[in-house]
Write a structure and sequence with these properties.
With 154 residues, the protein is an all-beta fold. It is built from no helices and eleven strands. The chain has a domain of 103 residues: Immunoglobulins (Immunoglobulin-like), CATH 2.60.40.10.
Length: 154
């Protein structure tokens, strides 16, 4: 998975490369046209959630080719923005930043929600106290059937 966010560097996009926690590996790197295919320049780090991640700021307005190097074996990310043939008879993944927004963090607009007033949806009625609304209409908690706990069969 690839996530794109505005960067604090002008003319760049912050790109996060992610691989799921089910990828069993000792070392994973991302290499591409953005780092002259340096096999060890950008390592992915496994977080507490098990997901492998690396974040880089890439120049906007371009398409960048890349591949993952997982324990010495090249892998293509077919869930990227696209892929193209390479000279080795396989495919390179692509991250497309040609149309990505380049607004910096300082250019972002603050929220327009007024904090002092609670937001209540006009189409939803305010619930009555002590009444539970379910599929079969409104009932008080005393009218609701009690659920028996499930017991595993021996």
């Amino acid at each position: 998975m690839i996530q794109k966010n505005p960067s604090s560097r002008p003319g760049h996009i912050r790109v996060t490369f992610e691989l799921p926690s089910c990828v069993w590996a000792d070392r994973i790197y991302v290499a591409g046209t953005f780092n002259d295919w340096d096999e060890r320049a950008i390592p992915l780090v496994q977080g507490r959630d098990g997901v492998w991640r690396a974040t880089v700021d890439l120049p906007a307005g371009q398409r960048h080719e890349f591949r993952y190097l997982i324990d010495g074996r090249w892998q293509t990310d077919y869930h990227a923005d696209g892929f193209t043939d390479n000279i080795y008879g396989s495919h390179n993944s692509m991250v497309d930043l040609e149309s990505a927004r380049t607004a910096s963090v300082a250019d972002r607009q603050p929220s327009k929600v007024i904090e002092a007033q609670p937001h209540i949806s006009p189409h939803l009625p305010y619930p009555k106290e002590g009444v539970v609304r379910g599929i079969n209409g409104e009932r008080s908690p005393a009218d609701m059937p009690r659920m028996r706990p499930r017991v595993a069969a021996a």
